[in-house]
Design brief:
about 550 residues, alpha/beta, Rossmann fold, 2 domains, nine-stranded mixed beta sheet, 15 strands, binds 1,6-di-O-phosphono-beta-D-fructofuranose
């Protein structure tokens, strides 16, 4: 296979590990933990994996030793995120270091591979082909939801057949929730199979005190910010278009916020703020039109607006509509019949939407019952509605400019980029660390690497019980235990920094052009973590 010059050079990159993981590793256990909310409910659902201690690793001469080889099964779950291959190479190197005859199996096409017994053994030849590359193509990913005991039992069958003692699920909040359910079940059934999770998602919404960031967020945001910067230059050169750029991120607006901090656009909508202020769709449109008119008054009939993919679900009237549709469509596949069940208010909202957007809202849900927001063209909806509003303003004498809107959607462009140095190091460390969790017999834990704004050498390695991150939420019309999603905090440093600057960015010339990710060169160019992480850590 022909390789690019960068691919060849990048294959030789040796990801950095925290000092604690470099030599022999000793385990330190902290105090018992509890879930972030709904403690009684979570405890009763996870009697074996609730309350376990937080774990940290330290380098020590009397470190963990294993007497026999370790066999591990790896699953990539959900949307691609840069660095997945490095997690797997970290796992591989970690178990091989513990015992040279250890084996890593990869289940093909996501969690479905475990159930259908589709797998390959990952040899060093295969692993070496994928080090420091983007994508999940080493074994593929999928969104099959592991939620039935029959699926768990099929997993036991294949693990016993291959001698697998532990599964590592590399996934987002939903996949890690399922991994924890699996860990609990395997303990209850005395299968001897451990389950460890790794925090993945470009969306950045799987984070908390112990998980500082999900992998892939850093690289994806850098790719989008490069593209936004390029469009800013174009806009500022041609001075004739308003670019409405929708950015991936199923629910939370972390990606939009991070890209705004990196590029300083004229407008960036933060869904969580829209929800907190209970803004209607009309109010969101009015606020955008106001900035367009203010810029036009200064002769600037161009600009950049960042729109988070999940916005539509945070606008109160839309949220109610979508939640009703989710429940109705979970029980009724005939869309027309399902629509008849809408409340009067939601039916009115539904009818007021442009036909294409209304249709997009009724498309198939993902396996977790969520509406697939990446398929909803919010950027086009806003261009259309802002255009209409500006016409009204013109008629009222409040606007004299020209408005030509162009829509973009950046999502898939960033999910498989070659991981930045940060993600390459972070992912490799997460994987290597997961191997230590397995060697210490842990299950129901997520691999955790902290202190990530410091040089990698000083990162803190360990494990956090997944039950600690859980609360009860309504899913598919019923209350379920799930990892609490981390939305943008309006009292957090990243949002506050954005809010303090956005009025200036709206009207003045403040664009920043981050340029492409750099893999080789000075550390201030190549190794910077996201602004979100830097601001959050600085505020601690
Ligand atoms: P994960 O939560 O599984 O990491 O996926 C996130 C995501 O990239 C979202 O940003 C996006 O809405 C969704 O996946 C798209 O899903 P698909 O790849 O199935 O089109």
């Amino acid at each position: 296979m022909t390789k690019s010059a960068l691919q060849i050079a990048r294959a030789a990159y040796q990801p950095k590990l925290p000092k604690a993981l470099k030599g022999k590793v000793a385990i330190k256990e902290g105090a018992a933990t509890q879930s972030v909310a709904d403690q009684d409910a979570i405890k009763s659902l996870f009697p074996n994996t609730y309350g376990m201690p937080i774990i940290s690793f330290e380098s020590s001469d009397k470190g963990i030793e294993v007497s026999k080889p370790i066999s591990v099964g790896v699953i990539l779950s959900g949307g691609q995120a840069p660095g997945g291959h490095n997690v797997i190479s970290g796992i591989f190197d970690g178990v091989k270091k513990l015992h040279k005859d250890s084996k890593v199996y990869g289940f093909l096409g996501g969690p479905g591979g475990l159930v259908d017994h589709k797998y390959i053994e990952l040899t060093s030849e295969i692993i070496d082909e994928y080090r420091n590359t983007g994508g999940f193509d080493i074994i593929g990913s999928g969104r099959t939801k592991l939620e039935e005991t029959a699926q768990y039992d099929k997993g036991v069958e294949i693990c016993n057949k291959l001698g697998i003692q532990a599964l590592i699920v590399i996934g987002g909040d939903d996949s890690n929730t399922n991994a924890c359910v699996l860990a609990e079940y395997y303990l209850q059934k005395n299968t001897g199979i451990q389950v460890i999770g790794c925090p993945k998602t470009i969306d950045g919404d799987l984070k908390n005190d112990m998980i500082e960031t999900s992998f892939g967020f850093d690289t994806a945001c850098k790719v989008y910010s490069e593209l936004i910067g390029n469009i800013m230059r174009d806009a500022n050169s041609a001075k004739k278009y308003w670019h409405f750029i929708k950015l991936m991120g199923r629910s939370a607006s972390h990606i939009g916020l991070e890209c705004a901090l990196q590029t300083q656009p004229n407008i960036c909508i933060i869904s969580e703020e829209v929800e907190a202020k209970k803004q209607t769709l009309k109010e969101v449109v009015d606020s955008i039109a106001k900035v367009v008119a203010t810029r036009a008054a200064k002769g600037n009939n161009f600009g950049i607006a960042l729109i988070p993919e999940g916005l539509i679900e945070f606008i109160p009237e839309m949220k109610v509509l979508i939640s009703e549709l989710n429940d109705l469509l979970a029980h009724e596949s005939d869309v027309q019949k399902a629509l008849n069940g809408l409340s009067k208010a939601s039916a009115e909202v539904f009818c007021s939407l442009p036909e294409n957007i209304a249709k997009q809202l009724t498309l198939d849900r993902d396996p977790h019952g969520n509406v697939q927001v990446s398929l909803i063209e919010t950027e086009k909806l806003l261009i259309e509605m802002v255009g209409k509003r500006l016409k009204e303003m013109k008629a009222e004498g409040q606007y004299t400019g020209k408005f030509a809107g162009l829509g973009h959607f950046f999502g898939y462009e960033g999910r498989c980029a070659a991981p930045s140095n940060f993600d390459a190091d972070y992912c490799y460390s997460l994987g290597y660390n997961a191997a230590q969790l397995i060697a210490t017999g842990k299950t129901g834990y997520m691999s955790s690497i902290r202190n990530t704004t410091a040089p990698a050498e000083q990162w803190i390695a360990g494990g956090v019980p997944v039950t600690m991150m859980m609360n009860m939420e309504r899913r598919h019309g019923a209350m379920k235990p799930v990892i609490q999603k981390a939305l943008v905090r309006l009292d957090g440093a990243p949002f506050k920094t954005f809010a303090a600057n956005r009025d200036k960015w709206a009207t003045d010339y403040c664009y920043v052009y981050p340029g492409p990710i750099q893999y080789f060169g000075p550390t201030e160019v190549c190794d910077q973590p996201t602004k979100t992480l830097q601001l959050e850590q600085a505020a601690r």
